[in-house]
Write a structure and sequence with these properties.
single chain; eight-stranded parallel sheet; Glutaconate Coenzyme A-transferase; alpha/beta; eight-stranded mixed sheet
Length: about 450
């Protein structure tokens, strides 16, 4: 068998040489989040005037994406995201990013059965002595995309943590067409931000519902991280991790001795994740840690897998809820914000779990650009994208309380949701409920 180092040397190219395989009209896929192949993206951007209609897909990129920034007309490069970061949201506002609706557990099957990948550009760890590169923080979707690609280019990022996996966490040198190297800056960091009083009030309502031994899914955003911080200060023991995204809240739980995974009835003593980004300390904790496993999201986020975990607790955020119990977590009206991601996966899976609970959190109000306070509980949606259907509404939490909409009639839902709205908006919500025939005369005001 050919020596792995010899294969590596034979396939090694500069980024500029490797991107010559891209042709006009191609579909090009980048690995997401901190596994963004920045060297290849910059090299591809240099070919702008040679190419037209090159479609690029990725998600949760933190920027800058050179192929996007160099082509405001989108004549040469058309960027598309499965789930928007704050940077990609701003690209959407500028008309430079198009969203692709999806549910995260289905993403790789979309590729497998329906999509074309002409060139996959995948950021990986350095090769080990066995000829393997690790997909690191992008394990959740990387291999599934790679297997559909006509051409596979690996960009070695010397700063990525090597995260052990159950399966599909690696690619072998024999499977790559080209390899590129180069210096990379430190990985982007996303430490836990300081909570607001409303965040703390919401988190305090959730924590009493979490038992020792629970398996936790903490979604993207400040609220799930606040819950994690409070859990680290609690008397709970032997918490577990089963999540699409591993952030610093899990590292804080580990440092506090709360995260042991010892009572999980699936993958005992192992924390499971599909993706990761956070602080430098988090990346160090994940690197070659036998207590953490990265796996494909079609497994991690499958409701039938999530439902096997006893006391599965899912905590996610949303933007708005209407009086019917529909949940929007991805747009503000018609303005795109993020994406469905795995929220619906875990809402479904936690409901299947013995002792499981799914919490959707939001502050009762926000302040708009004019300084005016607006309710997050709305009479009905007007263009807001529904992330979770009313038929799957579960626990909803604001700083004013918690309600469980499971099995509730339309008039019960209206009363319950109005009870956790900001007091300044309750009378107008009651009036709207009456107009929408959702309000009983006997309901409490």
């Amino acid at each position: 068998m050919e020596d792995y180092l010899e294969q590596y040397r034979r396939k090694l190219r500069t980024p500029e040489e490797a991107v010559q395989v891209v042709k006009s009209g191609d579909w090009v896929d980048y690995t997401p989040n901190v596994c963004f192949p920045s060297l290849l993206d910059a090299a591809l951007a240099k070919r702008r005037d040679e190419l037209t209609d090159v479609k690029i897909r990725s998600n949760l990129l933190f920027g800058p994406i050179r192929t996007v920034e160099c082509d405001p007309s989108r004549e040469h490069f058309i960027y598309n995201s499965w789930h928007c970061s704050a940077y990609e949201r701003k690209l959407c506002d500028r008309g430079l990013c198009s969203f692709i609706p999806m549910v995260f557990r289905n993403l790789v099957p979309y590729y497998r059965h329906f999509l074309t990948v002409n060139v996959a550009m995948l950021c990986v760890t350095p090769m080990d002595k066995h000829g393997y590169f690790n997909f690191s923080c992008a394990t959740g979707i990387a291999r599934g995309i790679m297997e559909k690609a006509d051409v596979v280019i690996l960009e070695v990022n010397e700063r990525l943590p090597r995260i052990y996996g159950g399966f599909d966490e690696c690619v072998h040198i024999s499977e790559a067409d080209y390899v590129v190297e180069g210096e990379h800056p430190p990985l982007p960091q996303f430490p836990i931000t300081a909570p607001t009083p409303e965040d703390i009030a919401i988190a305090r309502q959730i924590v009493p519902h979490i038992p020792s031994g629970a398996a936790l899914q903490l979604g993207i955003g400040g609220m799930p991280n606040v819950v994690g911080s409070l859990l680290a200060e609690s008397d709970l023991k032997d918490l577990g991790m089963h999540t699409e995204l591993c952030g610093d809240a899990y590292y804080e739980l580990f440092k506090a001795g709360k995260l042991t995974n010892a009572r999980k009835n699936l993958h005992r003593n192992k924390g499971i994740t599909g993706m990761a980004f956070g602080s430098r300390e988090l990346y160090g904790w994940l690197d070659q840690n036998p207590g953490v496993i990265a796996a494909p999201l079609e497994y991690v986020n499958a409701p039938e897998i999530i439902g096997q975990l006893d006391n599965m607790i899912s905590i996610n955020s949303c933007i708005a809820v209407d009086l019917y119990g529909q949940v929007c977590a991805e747009s503000a009206g018609l303005r795109h914000i993020s994406g469905t991601g795995g929220q619906l996966d875990y809402l479904t899976g936690a409901a299947m779990s013995r002792g499981g609970k799914a919490f959707i959190c939001m502050t009762s109000y926000y302040v708009d650009k004019t300084g005016e306070r607006r309710s997050r509980i709305l009479p009905y949606f007007r263009g807001d994208i529904v992330t979770d259907p009313r038929s799957q509404a579960y626990y909803l939490v604001t700083e004013y309380g918690m309600v469980n909409l499971v099995g509730r009639t339309t008039w019960e839902r209206a009363e319950m949701l109005i009870s956790i709205a900001h007091p300044d908006f309750r009378e107008e919500l009651i009036a709207a409920a009456e107009r929408q025939k959702l309000w009983r005369r006997s309901n409490r005001r």
